[in-house]
Amino acid sequence: MNKRIQAQRLKGFRDFFADDIVIREYVINIFKSVFEKYGYEPLETPALEYSDVFLRESGEEAIKLFYRFKDEGGRDIMLKYEVMISMCRAVAENINKIIFPYKRYQIQTVWRAEKPQKGRFREFTQCDADTIDSSSVLADAEFIQMGIEVMEKLGFKKFIVNISNRKFLNGIIKFSGAKNEQFIPICLCIDKLPKIGLTEVKKELLGKRKIPLEVVEKILSIINTKGETEELMQKYKGLLKDIPVAMEGLNELEQIFKYLKLAKISKETYKFSPYIARGLAYYNGPVWEFEIIDGGIGSVAGCGRYDDVIGKFVGEKIPATGGSFGIERIVEIIKERKMVNLSSVPTKVLLTYFDGKTLDKLIDIGTLLRKNDISTMLYPEVTKLDKQLKYADKKGIPYVIIIGPEEAQKNIIKLKDMKTGEQKELNKQELLKFFNNK
Prior knowledge:
This protein is an alpha+beta fold. The chain has 17 helices and 16 strands. It is 42% helix and 19% strand.
């Protein structure tokens, strides 16, 4: 044999075996069912896109994480960094074929060259839903309602939706005396408040971002204001009443909170969190995150309104809003906490093959069971019965069919329950009846 190839995965990439795939499919199917309940339809876009599609719409932190290269034709391309921008390109290219408002969901693989860590990978599945061509904040509020339903159906008990608004934040920046070009750098910093704390955010604003001390102190004093949602709304309306953009943002937030109240959404599941900014540069209205509280998990979804992105592809304004759920983090949490009990083995029956003379009987029974949608595996080699029974036990296959010379002569089927050890002797009709009643 030639020199052996080293079997080694790239860091940040994973193999998925049955146990993982079953949980992933369970989670994805819940997302799909809830999305479709709210009127969203599926979309898929290519793995590769022109780099320019993403370069123009991503912030400075995102660009560092692109898997970008030139192909054999010299084209500047990249692996899809996120599905949202790819969706914008697809909508723009098919603008005359789509019926608006367009509600779509997209569950596909994306790639980011970030440092692998717990819950973060370089190749992962992103799960997005968006409403295109609606300026109404009802679309934002409905998404929040939908996301809460998803979290509940997945089995999470302690989670919160942190809600804010980029217009409101823009108003704070103006109120503080900061320059317009400092808006995004400031947003990138204050969005880290729950992760690194007030002291570290202040250090970063003063040091890395070079924001004047008096501006920093004014911003932090506002976003760090404590209180219930209604109380905070009134405080900010009084403080920022002379700044139109801030009032516009607060009015949008008021509509969202009214919707959630009318929809009878528990106040325990959402709150006004002034520091939420979202790092991506294209958000320009309501922004929100879904955070799992217990276990220090943090954010599992980032969402917001981005009215100026799709229009750049078509030359006219097309409002849009939506969000992205971190499927991988959610799957890992569900798996670690054993929140669901799912069998990774689809096989219901093992046909044992320990006598070459019975193959015709085994094939006949296997074909009959499969035609009746009973998942059945024929052991592929003649070997000792004990070995095959141990195989079924290790794989978690619940039933074994045994047909040796004696069973073949009597024209019977011996069915063994691997959990109880009980054995039955049945004919074909009785066998089908047994499984149909399961």
